[in-house]
Design goal:
Elements lengths: L4 H12 L5 H8 L3 H13 L19 E9 L4 H12 L4 E6 L6 E7 L2 H12 L5 E8 L20
Antiparallel strand pairs: 1-3, 1-4, 2-3
Helix pairs in contact: 1-2, 2-3
Amino acid sequence: MSLDKTDVRILAELQRDGRQSVVEIAERVGLTHTPCLRRIRHLEDAGVIRGYTAILDPAAVGLRVTAFVQVKLERHADETMNRFMTAVEAIEEVVSCHVTTGNYDFLLTVLAADLESLGNVVLKRLVALAGVRDMQSSIALRTVKRVGKVPLEQVAAFR
C-alpha cells in the first residue's frame, strides 16, 4: 500500500496517542471527521494498523528480566522453521521473534519476572522445541530505549 502525507500524519498521531478521538486526529491532520475515519479504516483493512494496545512498562508489572535468545535450528527446511515459529507464538514470555542472518536462525526477546522464571522458559520450554540445535542467551542489564513506535520519518511520504 502506498501512503500519502495525510496517511502518515494520521499514523503519527495514532502512535503519539492512540486514545485520541477521530475528531481530534482529524483536526490535527487538517481533515474533517468522515474522511479521517475513512482513511483510518482503510489503513486498518490494509493491515498497516494491526491493532490498538496500551504500551506497558515490563518492570512496572513485575517483568524485570529481559533476555535475547538466539536459536539455531537443526535444519532450514520450511517444515522445521514453521513448526518452530508456531511453537514460539504460543509462548507468552517470548514477546518478539525475528528470523535472522548470521550464525543463528532466530532472535527472540523474552520477558520474565526473575532469573528462575527465565531459566524455566529457556531451559524447559525453548530447548525442548523440536528442531532446536543450539541456543545462546544474553540478559539485558538495563533497557535504555524501548518504544512501540515505527520511525515514520523513514517513510517516503513523510519527507
